[in-house]
Design a protein that fits this description.
By secondary structure, this protein is mainly α. It has one domain (9-93). The protein is 46% helix and 0% strand. It contains 4 helices and no strands. Helix 3 (56-76) runs antiparallel to helix 4 (85-93). The radius of gyration is 14 Å and the shape is globular. The relative contact order is 0.15. InterPro entries: ABATE (IPR010852), ABATE_dom_sf (IPR023286).
Length: 100
């Protein structure tokens, strides 16, 4: 289901975004269940960890984090400036992770 291992978790997260303009691509992190599976498949939590704290708010936060990291990556590769993206990544990363 996941098209990654880029060698960096942040890039693996960006790879879950639908490819704009590509037919047949869809949102891979479309709910708490898929986010929990991605976290386990990415080895960010031990296998079979039940993440009961994950909800739609966590999914939205991961979408926001993914967007900010994608903008930072594009800026690093010569794309448009990623105004505020680094600050947003740091703010999102400062919170407690979703736990079991």
């Amino acid at each position: 289901m996941w098209r990654f291992d880029a060698g960096r978790i942040c890039l693996d997260l960006v790879a879950t975004e639908p490819a704009s303009g590509m037919p047949g691509t869809c949102e891979q992190l479309d709910g708490p269940g898929h986010l929990a599976r991605w976290l386990a498949d990415a080895r960010l939590v031990p296998p079979d960890t039940v993440l009961t704290a994950l909800d739609d708010i966590w999914v939205a936060r991961f979408h926001e984090l993914r967007s900010a990291v994608g903008r930072l990556m594009a800026a690093q590769l010569g794309g448009p400036e990623a105004d505020g993206a680094l600050e947003r990544v740091n703010a999102l990363a400062s919170g407690a992770p979703p736990g079991p």
